[in-house]
Write a structure and sequence with these properties.
Chain lengths: ~400, ~100
């Protein structure tokens, strides 16, 4: 088997992609950013950004973590000019990592056409430099892997999610950091989950994070549950939760992190995605892509996405591995799916076999392989308002 | 006697099975404790009552409670939003009028 290769960054982390991120700092700059990236849609130039005009520390931290993600090699910031996003702080943070960075202010450059022209010229120059970057050997224990489920149905919790959990168990045994999330989809599982924490204090924090999610969703009047979940055979949020929880595998839980926190070492981490304090900005994550962006902001090199109904999405910055839990869906949508976990339901494969297949696929992404969603050009991205308090002292494992 | 191979029992404590494949209304199934008849079409991965469930009883899947029965449920019944509810937040679902009747 060929070795893993990565792009070495100044903070010691290694990337499995070498993306130019074109980041708009308000929706008003989105079109210009998208147009700049368009000619390289097949070649690792991704548009990301924040649509809001009001300042938000969470969004600014997310953007900083994404622009300094190990899969990113250079960053072009696109500002309209009058938005509140602190473009100076973001440019400074990116520059401090040694990455090439440039800010285009549309109002200063002379409008749409001039900004696109200037942006494309800079991206062209960066792309040709990045394409010459030497890679270095990389090990599985340098990988960070996230998992999410979306378009879940009654098969998700039986095939795809537990198979992703088996892959997590293998990767954690090899020293990788693995992150599972969506506390709103762990409602009903909090006590069994807390029993897996490496300390009782962390267990209490895990339970608190789920209680917070239950309160938050109760205020909003809807659980983290879409109409298609019911059509797929899931009757309640706690049934969906039991299936979603299976993604976490059986390893001990080493820590609780919030969006933008990088796991300090290998092991299994819960990502608490529900904002702290009063309900202020609406639903915690308005769709699956918001969850994927948060996992990537925590340093995920790739994201395992388990779907039963059949999601087609990918993401900017990091590849998304799509694991199809439902054999009927797989037969309809195989072009979009990397793994056919529905074989388990039909007795054509075991959970362990599919788990090993997923683990091997993750490793192959650091050996030059690309996912189906990458091949299809999926680069979804969304970031909205949230607010968080800092982590409690019991949340992270001792160094 | 073991249960019907077209149904999965995820945990011995469960009072529901999961359908391994689509099953039509009227189909005879073996619950392991006697025969029963499906009351509706059961799509892939939907739930079927393993035994009679009284109103207010917990629905158990994966060995854990996933909600509560809102009406008396006979063995062989499709267990879903029409006869159970969440103990947390109500379940949001859409009705497709084009399919109405097809699953009755």
């Amino acid at each position: 088997m060929s070795e893993l290769r990565g792009y070495l960054r100044s903070d010691g982390r290694k990337g499995i992609r070498n993306v130019v991120a074109v980041a708009y700092l308000v929706e008003c700059a989105h079109h210009v950013a998208r147009e700049i990236a368009l000619p390289w849609r097949e070649n690792e130039v991704h548009a990301i950004g924040f649509p809001g005009c009001y300042p938000n520390p969470y969004a600014e931290r997310m953007m900083e973590q994404l622009c300094t993600h190990p899969n990113v090699g250079a960053v072009l910031l696109i500002s309209l000019g009058c938005e509140s996003f602190n473009k100076y702080a973001l440019e400074r943070a990116v520059r401090a990592t040694g990455r090439p960075v440039k800010t285009i202010v549309i109002q200063g450059t002379g409008g749409t056409r001039a900004s696109i022209k200037e942006g494309r010229a800079w991206v062209e120059e960066q792309r040709s430099l990045l394409d010459e970057t030497e890679t270095v050997p990389m090990a599985v224990n340098e990988l960070v892997i996230g998992t999410v489920c979306g378009g879940s149905d009654g098969t998700s919790g039986i095939t795809g999610n537990p198979a992703a959990g088996r892959a997590f168990d293998q990767l954690i045994a090899e020293g990788a950091a693995c992150i599972f999330e969506e506390t709103g989809e762990l409602i009903g599982c909090e006590h069994i989950m807390a029993a897996r924490a490496i300390t009782p204090e962390l267990g209490a924090e895990l339970e608190k994070s789920v209680a917070k999610a239950a309160r938050y969703y109760a205020t909003l009047g809807y659980g983290s549950f879409a109409a298609g979940n019911a059509e797929g055979g899931l009757s309640t949020i706690e049934e969906k939760s039991m299936g979603a929880y299976a993604k976490s595998g059986a390893s001990p839980i080493s820590g609780l992190i919030k969006p933008g926190d990088i796991p300090p070492k290998g092991g299994l981490y819960l990502l608490d995605v529900v904002p702290d304090g009063e309900v202020r900005f609406g639903f915690p994550n308005i769709n699956d892509n918001a969850e994927i962006a948060e996992l990537i902001a925590c340093g995920a090199h790739c994201v395992l996405f388990v779907t039963g109904r059949g999601s087609v999405v990918g993401s900017a910055i990091s590849p998304v591995v799509k694991i199809c839990a439902n054999p009927e869906t797989y037969r309809r949508m195989s072009d979009d799916m990397d793994v056919d976990a529905g074989r388990i339901l039909e007795g054509r494969a075991s959970l362990d076999e599919v788990g090993t297949e997923i683990r091997d696929l993750v490793v192959s992404l650091a050996q030059g392989a690309r996912t189906k969603s990458e091949e299809l050009g999926h680069q979804e991205f969304i970031l909205t308002y949230k607010s968080f308090e800092p982590l409690g002292p019991a949340c992270l494992p001792a160094a | 006697m073991s249960h019907d191979p077209r149904l999965i029992l995820l945990d011995p404590r469960d009072n529901v099975f999961v359908a391994r494949t689509r099953l039509p209304a009227g189909e005879a199934i073996e619950t392991g404790a006697g025969a029963a008849t499906l009351d509706r079409d059961v799509p892939l991965a939907h739930k079927v009552a393993r035994r009679a469930i009284a109103p207010g009883d917990k629905i158990l899947k994966y060995g854990a409670p996933i909600g509560v029965a809102t009406v008396a449920i006979a063995a062989g019944s499709h267990v879903h939003v029409q006869n159970m509810r969440s103990d947390y937040t109500p379940t949001y679902h859409l009705e497709d009028e084009r399919k109405a009747g097809a699953t009755q």
